[in-house]
Design brief:
single chain; about 325 residues; alpha/beta; Arc Repressor Mutant, subunit A; three-stranded antiparallel β-sheet; 14 helices; 10 strands
């Protein structure tokens, strides 16, 4: 099923559509005519009918609901969870070229479906710095109202930073979708010096938010790889020399701006000391650590994160899942 580039909110009124679109939709979905039979009735080609039905779904006059929780990749999910020691794995398609079908969107949908299952009254969800996480609220279908709290677990990129990875918007959007509350970490993710980081962490509003994040029930984060990642050098206090030094110490990825090596251990480096956010040791204290990441550029980072016990629930694509199983 082809999805629109941006999902329409649940309960939204259908868009105005041409009469031919509506006629094709009723003939096919209501009267069960095949594409070819619908084409004959309307006097158009079968290809035209396919396009009309796609328009009908995108306009919202046709809503398709699959009343089953069975995953199309159930066997792979079971194998991945067993091989990686996960509480659960959620495997999604590798993505296509159409609008709304990118790999990032597929991963965000998987994470959204998990949240819809687990969010409840009193739950605290720590939200990380990730472009995939930023898409999750858009793919929530029918979130149940819950008095849950959503809190940022890391600071934000400056306005000049690359990508939509700041946790503020995602935290607000998740809170709004579930009818919960949002708490932000009002600080940059990386600051100029150890001294500046210490001053910020001592600020009552920041320390209170970090304390709330470390006692969260669920963490929702992405994983950055060495090559396909939010660019911490753009618009932050990171110099090229510092970045080169970090790479030389074996950095393969990050979670919430905390950089780790091939063992999944936080690297002893000045940049990690300048991060405003949870340390990886604190992150591991969160019972459910939901990570949404995939693609060839993330395989090494995910392997390391699994090795270091940083993930309990993984949302990834079928290609990456098979690679992780083979490498386990």
């Amino acid at each position: 099923m082809t999805e629109p580039s941006a999902p329409r909110p649940a309960g939204a009124a259908p868009l105005a559509v041409p009469g031919l679109v509506a006629r094709a939709a009723r003939l096919h979905y209501e009267f069960s005519l095949t594409h070819q039979e619908t084409a004959a009735v309307l006097g158009v080609s079968r290809v035209k009918v396919t396009r009309l039905l796609k328009q009908a779904r995108e306009a919202g006059i046709v809503v398709i609901t699959v009343l089953s929780d069975l995953s199309p990749f159930a066997e792979v999910e079971e194998r991945l969870a067993g091989a990686a020691g996960l509480r659960e794995s959620i495997v999604v398609p590798a993505g296509g070229g159409g609008p709304g079908n990118s790999l990032r969107s597929m991963l965000a949908r998987g994470a959204a479906s998990y949240l819809e299952r687990v969010v409840r009254d009193g739950l605290v969800v720590a939200v990380g710095l990730s472009r995939t996480v930023a898409e999750v609220p858009a793919w929530l279908g029918h979130p149940r109202p819950a008095r849950a709290s959503f809190v940022s677990l890391a600071g934000a990129l400056p306005a000049g930073g690359h990508g939509s990875g700041n946790p503020y918007q995602a935290t607000d959007a998740l809170a709004a979708a579930f009818g919960g509350t949002a708490e932000h970490l009002h600080a940059p993710v990386i600051v100029r010096s150890d001294e500046a980081a210490a001053v910020l962490r001592a600020d009552p509003s920041i320390s209170r938010t970090l304390e709330q994040a470390v006692t969260a029930d669920v963490a929702l984060v992405g994983v950055g790889g060495r090559d396909d990642r939010i660019d911490f050098q753009q618009g932050t206090q990171v110099t090229p020399a510092e970045w080169t030094s970090l790479m030389a110490q074996g950095m393969v990825g990050d979670i919430g701006g905390r950089f780790f090596d091939r063992s999944g251990s936080e690297i002893e480096h000045e940049l990690n000391r300048r991060v405003i956010g949870l340390s990886l040791e604190e992150f591991r204290k969160i019972p459910v650590r939901l990570v949404a990441a995939g693609g060839p550029s993330k395989t090494e980072a995910l392997t390391a994160a699994l090795r270091g016990g940083l993930i309990t629930v993984l949302v990834t694509d079928i290609t990456t899942a098979n690679a992780l199983i083979e490498g386990a």
